[in-house]
Amino acid sequence: MLSGAILAGGTSSRMGREKGLVLLRNKPLISYAAETINKVADEVVVAVAQDMSRPYSKVLGDEFKVYEDSRRDGGPIEGLITALSAAKGDYVLVCPCDTPFLRPEVMESIARFAKGRDGAIPIIRGYIEPLHCALRRGHCLSVFEEAVEEGIRKLADAYAMLDLTMIDEDIMRGLDPNLESFWNLNTPEDLALAEDKMSHRLQ
After folding, report:
1. pLDDT in tens, 144-153
2. Is the Cβ–Cβ distance between 100 and 36 less than 8 Å?
3. Is the pLDDT of residue 203 over 80?
4. Distance (Å, rounded) from C-alpha 158 to C-alpha 76?
């Protein structure tokens, strides 16, 4: 069984409001990632900040189970712990909530590269994409919990404790030539650009 997980627990400081709930062409931003990962995974869980489960559940409906982080301001590693704890699959396919151009074939490829290892992460423009990944649930959960206990908060440091497949950018470009799957909308300006891009595609 392959689980999917959407991380929506960030502070959204640059967006100025709860990022996953911001409307993009009259749809909550998280809905785009949810629709995509739901095509690939057998179940989808959503990790949100404390006190945010109700608004996310309202926009996502019963099809997606929403779980709150147990620690406030724990960062992305806390979101991963929440997601891995809630998921049931042997592997969990992870994406952030702010990627409206995420392609299912990209996520399927990441899941395939994870098989037999602790997980898989793409390398894009020389850097890992830490929130686009597939992780072996049980082992990675234990490692992340141990990392937090040791005071480790950076995902890169936690990932260094795992046996991961690093996926070459060229492989991702073969599925998504402009790497739009990895475009995170962080600001109102990004949101406006995404609106414009979608408008042009519909013309």
Report:
1. 999 999 999 8
2. no
3. no
4. 11
